[in-house]
Structures are given as structure tokens and as C-alpha cells.
Design goal:
heterodimer, A: mainly alpha, 76% helix, B: alpha+beta, seven-stranded mixed sheet, six-stranded mixed sheet, 18% strand, globular
């Protein structure tokens, strides 16, 4: 009976306010410890996997790096020594693990710079792009998703869902190129308004620099929002539809609340759990960047770096990036696990 | 109680979004502020400066001339530092650079260079022979400093600077490439402070001291490289005030940027595709430069991989060891169709090993020697070699099995795949099967000799020594486990003798003659069949660049020249502004659009808040 579940939830909320410490106090720490331990094990597994996985990529990094250049056999051997590729695999592995645990992922073959430096250089750029897009598409998805569900079958719903599905199924690089042609170069009466790529024009400082970056940010963010918001919309919509038949909504209406309030105060909060899951998954993905959008707009982020690293293969850089990507997802999933009990205390029970 | 419950439960969903949003925003905003570690010596282009912006497809690997190997980075080093010699833009012959003249001793083992006294470093100090000697000595004694250009000093015995204008290089063996030492000479007083050459990337403090036509003033990884004109450059100051290399990962976006005027020049990766070129042809104020390229595109044959110690490895098809078979296969390749259909006219039909752009060394087969397209003759040759057709129309190998060749192709190169399809058709008509083996990374089977034929191509330098050396027996790997410098395991005594002779021949005309004999020999052997010389297709805005030197001067290319001619010589157009100014109106419009969007979001938030407040009452 749905009627049972809802009062229970309401009751929990009241208890949270009134002082339900006794029950929660016993369950939550254990729950928390379990999740954190699980995450630590996953991270360790990722560390090991990243070493072996990328050694399966065909290709000799030394040969690829020296390809097309005049190099002697002695030089090739010197490279192998320098990169530690002449050591037996198990030695390479123990060296890698030892260093990785102290946060040292070695030196990139192609850039001759510490992997950590290359990653910290590109990470803020990726976060700026994907973070901004994330906030916008999540807000837009939830907003439109709830409207859609509430007026299910109406014209608004059909247009909304149709548009979201269409945009969701469009390849992001294609949409990006289209936006460049229309809004950046300009077509017919539409003037070219935005830069064709990159993150900045260079040589600007202070406020002018911030404006310049924001200007470069518009098109890639619009592209990302357009292709991503549909997912949040659909999940929110279907979750809300599940709730809509619930008795507690009838009760709320019976109290004389306006329909708008019934939706916002009663239905949406209860329907948000699946969306929260999605939010955290998306949050984890923000770090991995969006390789296609970064490529189309020449955004200097982690996605592009990963592609460059894979093509050599620049093993230290690939391993470092893979670890960071995986770690972001694991950390965010763990965070989601930690947040659930706060949203719905039944989870930790 | 009901109301109480409602007010508490209402914001929860929204609060959640708000919290997540705020967290992400704080995170990104916080990180966004210190985003730009690059110093800002370079100023904005709004002050009437003439800026030349070049769209490039490559990112910089390193700004240290001792480490950089990518074309973009080495081209930038050409602009930052003088080399001893340069190449004439007209015909590629060696001309003065930092050295004004040079001579060799009668025993061919000592070279003496006179260093010019009118070249100064951008910090005001004089560039001297001491700087050159220090650069070479560093490369000879420090493995880290030998990373990129170590091969140039491999044969050096001793390098000294007896006076500020005199540089002496003593060799172990004669070496004809002494006027083609493509090594950037760096200022000793700056570089002697570097402790670890293997990890110093020269990208932390700007401007970087140099003596080339441009001085590097700013760099940001995967974004841009900024240089300003060196007004005191000895050959004369460049005409543009600034030169910016802007990184475009996607070449369609780069073409859009050219169309818009955001960049002045686009080279493509490595060249514009026929579709990109076609879309720009006839566009207003844009010139497409379809120039002879420096690459050759060939079909390499596995001659039976072997190592210097005599051990054979790999599994090349034994029938390919017969010269008649190799020649027959090439005679069944319709090179004209490849130019027309695959390259869509943006290439020249292949002849000898070295492209016609390098006129000094270009060689063509004689009429009797030429393996012209002739499928009937090819079939006859195969019959003669004993590879006859069986009842199914398939030619049979000595082992009695139908012949199918494995052709190694680069999955990333659409030309390889297209030509591969044609080979299946043409050789299929001969009764020979073709299995295309398209891989992202062909290195592994290539080095292991596990292929029959392969698509191959090299970019040729004005001095052809390197592309010639990769077919000598000396380039084979020491053992099958090692990696040699060899291209496809060719080892031929006649060719090797000619190679040694040209390397010791200091007379340019005589050396060119020997090089041509080597090309002839390579052609006859049939292990390297050049199908085409792909053009360098690039484009620039004529309303930003009035004129620019191509190399060769008559119908040559602009990007990736041997020398700094293009960017040094480029003359700004009078009318249109420079590339950076073109986007300033865009900035205004864009900012307005951004403000409107933000305003809209703000209004939306405000409305929601008001609604909530009303509801509470």
C-alpha cells in the first residue's frame, strides 16, 4: 500500500527534526564505513587495472614517438632505459604502484613533464566546461521534467519530451559543428557571435580575461546542455509519473492546496531519488570530460589530453588520467551512497 | 502540522539541486580564476597591431629545442633561434644563417664556419661561435640534450670556438650534410643554468631569449603560442607585429575560423581534405594554396625481414622475393586513377623516391625503365615468374596455395583504405587476393616483419640523407629483438655503396648525381613503389595577408617550410584588420548574449522565489 510508505516517510522527517539519533546513530556509521571501504578497494583495483589494461594497446611508444625522425638504434635503447621500458614487467609494475601511492604518476613520454602537472593543468579547464554545463542541464532537466510529467500527454509534454529526445540522440560533435557554422561564423542574417574554438584569445588580463573565457564558454556549454538535459528530464519525468497516483497527493489536494504547490512540495521531493542518482553519476563524469565536445571546440581539457596520450601510447599519462577518471566516478558514487540515507533513512537501515 | 511539513519538504528537492549546483559552481569558479598560469607579456591586439594568426592541428610537445620533435614545435624553434645555415626558398640550396660562410679541410674531416657578428640575442647580448660550440657540445655530452637532435652530432669528434666568429667542427668520418645541420643554436648564458635537459621544457618564463625573426612571448598548452616580431633581426624585421599559433583540434572548426576571419591561415592535418578545399574554393577573400608537397606515398614490400646478425624473421610472402612479381604488382596499379579518384587531383603521380619539389635530387625513370600501368604486361610477367592461374582463375604460389597478400594499412588514413579497395580490384583481376589489415597502430606487425605489403610515406627534407639512410643494411636491427632505424628491411649492397659515396661527396652536383643513382636502384628493386606525391593543400585570407613567400618560391607551400620564410616574409593587407580584431565585434555581441541569458536565468529564479513567498503567506 502506498499509503503506508508515505506516512512513514513523513514520520521519518519528523523524527529527523525531533531527534531520531538513537536508531540512526547505530546504523549510519557502519553503513558509512562499509561504503568507504568498498570505494577504497575499487580505487586499488583501478590502480592495478590501469597498469595492465594499457599495456595491451598495440604499439611501441618509443617507436611512435621517434617515428619519422632520424634516430639511431642506440638512441632507441636509451629511450627505453629512460622510460623504464627495458625492465621486466613485474619491476615496472612494482615501481608504478610504489610511486602512484605517493601521488607520483611518472613523467609523460611525449611532453617530458610530470603527469600530475599535465593533469592539474587541464583539469580546471574541463571542470569549468563540464561543471557549468552540469549545473545548467541538471536544473533545466529537473524543471522541464516535472512540468512534463505534471501535464502528461499535453502539448507541452509532447513538445518537451520530443525535443529532449531529439537533442539527446544528436551526436554532440555534429551539433557543435552546426553551432559553429550558424552562431560562430554566421549564416545569412545571423551574425557570427562566438569564437570558433579554444578557451581564450590570449593576452587578456583581469576582467577582460574572464569575459573572454565566458565568451568562449557559451557554445560548448550550449552544446553539452542540449545533448545532456534530456536524460535528466526523462528520468525526472518518469519518477514523478510513478508518484502521481499516490494517495498522499490526493490528501494534499484535499487540504485545498493549489496544484502547483502539490507538485512542488509533495510530489517532486519524493520523486527526486532516481534523479539524485543520475546527478551523482553525471557529476562523476564531469571530470572525464567530454572528448568530442572538447575536440570540436578545441577546449584544452582532459578529454583531449587523454586522446593525445592514447595515440602514442603515452603510458604514464594514460594511467594517470584513467586513474583520475575512475576515481572521480568512485568518489561521486560513494558520496551518493552517503547522501541517500539522509534523503531516505530507509536506505541505511 | 500540515503546513509545517510542507514548508520543510518543499525546498528539499530544490535545495538538493541548489546544493549540487552551488558545489559545482564553487568548484569550477574557484578553479577558473587561477586558470591562466601563462605570463602575459603579449598584449591584446586592439591597439592596431598587425597580428597573423595561424590555425594549427598539432599541440606543442616541448618548447625546448633539445626535446621538441613535432613539426609545429620545430617550426616555432626555427622562428625563435637561428641555425648555422638556412635553405634558399627558391631551390632549397644551403644559404647563410648564423654562419656567413663555411669551408671544409682537404681531408674532409674539419669544417670551419664563420659566425656573423650582427646577430644579437633578444636580451641584448651578442650571439657568438661560443654559443654554437656550447650547444653542440652539450648535445654530445648530455643524453638529455641529445633527445631530439642527437643524430646530428653522432659523427662529431670535437667542436670548438677559437674566436667569437669562428666555429670549428671536427668529424670522425666525412659527412656531406654539414650545411644541413637543423639544430637551433641557443644562448649559452641562458641555457647553462639548466640542470636537467631531459625535463626542462623552456615554457615557464617569457619572453624566451632568442635571435630568430620572432621572440616567443606567451604559451599556453593546447591553446596558443604567441610570438612578437624581433625588430632587430639581422635579415630584417618581420612585417607583422605578432604571430599567433592557435590550436584547433578539429580541422572543420579551423576552416570555419578561417571563413570567419578569426585566423589568417589554416594548414589542415596534415593538409586540407579535398572536401575542405572545395568548400573554400571561390570563397570571398580566401586563397586556397594547392602546392606540391614534401611527402611521398608509397607501397612498400616486405623483402624478408632480417637483422644485422643474419637472423631472418617475420613472414613475408616468398613470392615477393621475385623482382618480376614486385614489378608486375606495381604495373597493375593505376596511379592516375589514384590521383584522380583518391586524392581528387590534390597530388602528383609518383616517379622516383624524392618528390619533384626538391628539384636538385628529383629523379624520374627512363622510358625503358619505367613501370607504367600495364595490366596485360603484369599478367605476362607473373606467368613468366611461374605464378600461373589455376582453374578458379587464382594465381598459385610455389606451395600450391592461391596467393593472397596481406596489406598493412593505417586505419587513421582514409587514403590507405581507398587505395586498398582499388588494389583488391586491380590485383583481383590479375588473380591475386588482397587482405587489407587496417590498424590504428601498424608499428607492431611492421617491426616484426609480419606483413606482405604496406602503405608507406615519409616527409623528405631538403637534405635527403635521412630518407636514403633508412634503406641501408646499416639501419637493420642488430638482432630480431631490437628495433632498427630501417624502414622496411631493404638491404642491398649496390645501394649501400652508393649511400656511402654520396655521404662523403662534398660537391653538391656530384652528390646529387649519386643520389639519383640510388633512386634508380631503389626503383628497379621494386621494394619501394612510389604511387603519389600528395600536395600540401592550405588556405589563407587575402584580406589579412597581402603576400607571403612559398617554398619553393614558385608554386610552393607555406606551412612547415624548411626555414622561416613564410611567416617572416608575410605582408599584412592594408584593408582588413588583423585576425584578432575581426573577433572584437563578436566579443561585444557575445557578451550581450551572455548577459541576456544570465538575466533570464536571474529573472526566472526571482520569479520562483516570489512565488514561494506568496505561497507562504
Amino acid at each position: 500500500m502506498t499509503a503506508d510508505a508515505t506516512p512513514a516517510l513523513v514520520e521519518d522527517k519528523q523524527q529527523t527534526a525531533a531527534g531520531p539519533r538513537v536508531r540512526k546513530g547505530s546504523a549510519y556509521p557502519r553503513y558509512l564505513a562499509g561504503k568507504v571501504a568498498g570505494a577504497a578497494v575499487s580505487l586499488l583495483a583501478v590502480l592495478v587495472t590501469s597498469f595492465f589494461l594499457f599495456r595491451l594497446i598495440p604499439g611501441d611508444p618509443v617507436k611512435t614517438m621517434t617515428g619519422g625522425r632520424q634516430v639511431s638504434a642506440e638512441q632507441l635503447a636509451a629511450y627505453r632505459r629512460e622510460f623504464g621500458l627495458d625492465l621486466p614487467l613485474w619491476r615496472q609494475f612494482t615501481d608504478y604502484c610504489g610511486k602512484a601511492l605517493t601521488g607520483d604518476f611518472g613523467t609523460s613520454y611525449q611532453f617530458r613533464a610530470p603527469v600530475v602537472d599535465k593533469i592539474t593543468e587541464a583539469l580546471p579547464n574541463t571542470l569549468l566546461l563540464t561543471g557549468t554545463a552540469f549545473v545548467l542541464y541538471t536544473a533545466l532537466g529537473i524543471f522541464l521534467g516535472t512540468r512534463s510529467a505534471w501535464r502528461r500527454g499535453g502539448l507541452g509534454d509532447r513538445v518537451n519530451t520530443g525535443l529532449a529526445l531529439t537533442l539527446y540522440s544528436i551526436p554532440s560533435f555534429w551539433l557543435g559543428l552546426l553551432l559553429i557554422i550558424v552562431l560562430s561564423v554566421g549564416i545569412g542574417p545571423i551574425p557570427g557571435m562566438f569564437p570558433t574554438g579554444g578557451m581564450e584569445s590570449g593576452g587578456k588580463e583581469g576582467f577582460a580575461y574572464v569575459v573572454d573565457v565566458a565568451h568562449h564558454l557559451v557554445l560548448p556549454v550550449v552544446t553539452l546542455v542540449a545533448v545532456e538535459y534530456g536524460q535528466t528530464l526523462l528520468v525526472t519525468r518518469s519518477a514523478l509519473l510513478d508518484e502521481m497516483g499516490s494517495d498522499y497527493l490526493t490528501t494534499a489536494r484535499a487540504k485545498g492546496l493549489r496544484d502547483d504547490l502539490v507538485r512542488r512540495r509533495h510530489a517532486v521531493p519524493n520523486a527526486l531519488l532516481p534523479t539524485v542518482t543520475l546527478i551523482f553519476i553525471n557529476l562523476g563524469r564531469t571530470v572525464a570530460g567530454v572528448i568530442l565536445v572538447e575536440t570540436v571546440f578545441s577546449w584544452p581539457g582532459l578529454g583531449g589530453l587523454f586522446y593525445q596520450a592514447l595515440s602514442v601510447p603515452d603510458l604514464p599519462l594514460v594511467q594517470g588520467l584513467f586513474f583520475v577518471f575512475a576515481a572521480a566516478v568512485i568518489v561521486m558514487n560513494t558520496l551518493a551512497d552517503l547522501v541517500y540515507p539522509l534523503l531516505d533513512p530507509r536506505v541505511a537501515r | 502540522m500540515g503546513t509545517n511539513d510542507q514548508t520543510r519538504s518543499l525546498p528539499r528537492g530544490l535545495r538538493l539541486v541548489a546544493v549540487a549546483g552551488a558545489a559545482a559552481l564553487t568548484l569550477t569558479a574557484g578553479l577558473a580564476t587561477p586558470l591562466d598560469p601563462a605570463p602575459r607579456q603579449a598584449r591584446a591586439a586592439d591597439d592596431g597591431k598587425k597580428v597573423l594568426t595561424v590555425a594549427v592541428a598539432q599541440s606543442v610537445d616541448s618548447l625546448s629545442p633539445f626535446l621538441a620533435v613535432r613539426l609545429l614545435s620545430t617550426s616555432i624553434h626555427r622562428l625563435m633561434y637561428e641555425y648555422l645555415t638556412n635553405y634558399d626558398p627558391k631551390d632549397n640550396h644551403a644559404i647563410p644563417g648564423l654562419a656567413t660562410k663555411w669551408e671544409s679541410s682537404p681531408d674532409k674531416l674539419t669544417w670551419t664556419y664563420t659566425i656573423r657578428s650582427n646577430s644579437t640575442w633578444s636580451d641584448g647580448r651578442q650571439a657568438t661561435a661560443e654559443d654554437a660550440a656550447w650547444t653542440f657540445n652539450k648535445m654530445m655530452t648530455d643524453d638529455g640534450a641529445a633527445t631530439a637532435n642527437g643524430s646530428y652530432v653522432g659523427n662529431f669528434r670535437k667542436v670548438t670556438a677559437p674566436s667569437p666568429t669562428k666555429l670549428v667542427i671536427e668529424l670522425k668520418k666525412p659527412q656531406a650534410t654539414m650545411t644541413a645541420l637543423d639544430v637551433p643554436i641557443v644562448p649559452k648564458h641562458v641555457w647553462e643554468k639548466v640542470s636537467d635537459f631531459s625535463e626542462f621544457n623552456n615554457d615557464k618564463s617569457f619572453p624566451i631569449v632568442g635571435n630568430g625573426p620572432f621572440v616567443l612571448t606567451g604559451y599556453k598548452a593546447d591553446s596558443y603560442v604567441r610570438l612578437k616580431a624581433n625588430k632587430s633581426f639581422w635579415r630584417g624585421a618581420p612585417k607583422f607585429d605578432e604571430l599567433v599559433f592557435r590550436y584547433y583540434k578539429d580541422q572543420d572548426a579551423a576552416v570555419s575560423a578561417l571563413r570567419k576571419g578569426e585566423v589568417s591561415f589554416v594548414a589542415g592535418s596534415p593538409s586540407l581534405t579535398p572536401a575542405q578545399a572545395a568548400s573554400l574554393e571561390g570563397a570571398e577573400n580566401i586563397k586556397v594554396n594547392d602546392a606540391p608537397g614534401r611527402r611521398f606515398y608509397a607501397l612498400a614490400t616486405n623483402p624478408g625481414a632480417k637483422a644485422k646478425n643474419g637472423k631472418k624473421f617475420g613472414d613475408g610472402h616468398p613470392s615477393l622475393l621475385d623482382q618480376r612479381v614486385r614489378n608486375a604488382l606495381f604495373m597493375a596499379v593505376d596511379r592516375k586513377a589514384i590521383i584522380d579518384k583518391v586524392f581528387q587531383g590534390h597530388a602528383v603521380e609518383g616517379e622516383g623516391y624524392i618528390p619533384p619539389r626538391f628539384s636538385q635530387y628529383f629523379w624520374k625513370p627512363t622510358a625503358s625503365q619505367k613501370l607504367a600501368y600495364d595490366p596485360a604486361e603484369a599478367a605476362r610477367l607473373l606467368d613468366q615468374a611461374g605464378y600461373k592461374k589455376n582453374g578458379d582463375g587464382k594465381r598459385v604460389g610455389k606451395d600450391g596455395k592461391p596467393i593472397t597478400y596481406r596489406v598493412l594499412c593505417h586505419a587513421t588514413d582514409p587514403n590507405d583504405k581507398a587505395v586498398g579497395k582499388y588494389l583488391q580490384e586491380w590485383w583481383g583481376d590479375l588473380g591475386i587476393g588482397v587482405r587489407l589489415n587496417c590498424l590504428d597502430n601498424v608499428t607492431d606487425p611492421w617491426l616484426a616483419g609480419k606483413y606482405d605489403l604496406a602503405f608507406d610515406g615519409w616527409s623528405v627534407n631538403p637534405d635527403p640523407d635521412f630518407v636514403l639512410s633508412i634503406h641501408t643494411c646499416g639501419a637493420l636491427p642488430a638482432t630480431p629483438e631490437d628495433t632498427g632505424a630501417t624502414d622496411n628491411f631493404i638491404c642491398d649492397k649496390t645501394y649501400d655503396e652508393l649511400y656511402a659515396r654520396q655521404l662523403a661527396e662534398y660537391d653538391p652536383a656530384k652528390r646529387a648525381d649519386i643520389v639519383k643513382q640510388m633512386e634508380s636502384r631503389l626503383y628497379d628493386l621494386g621494394y619501394m613503389n612510389v604511387m603519389a606525391y600528395p600536395n600540401a593543400v592550405e588556405a589563407y585570407r587575402t584580406d589579412q595577408i597581402k603576400s607571403i613567400t612559398t617554398m619553393p618560391a614558385k608554386a610552393g607551400n607555406i606551412y612547415g617550410q624548411d626555414g622561416y620564410w613564410s611567416w617572416w616574409s608575410a605582408v599584412p593587407a592594408d584593408s582588413g584588420g588583423s585576425s584578432d580584431n575581426a573577433s572584437s565585434t563578436g566579443v561585444v555581441v557575445g557578451v550581450v548574449a551572455g548577459v541576456v541569458i544570465l538575466g533570464g536565468l536571474g529573472a526566472f529564479a526571482a520569479m520562483r522565489r516570489r512565488a514561494t513567498a506568496e505561497d507562504r503567506e
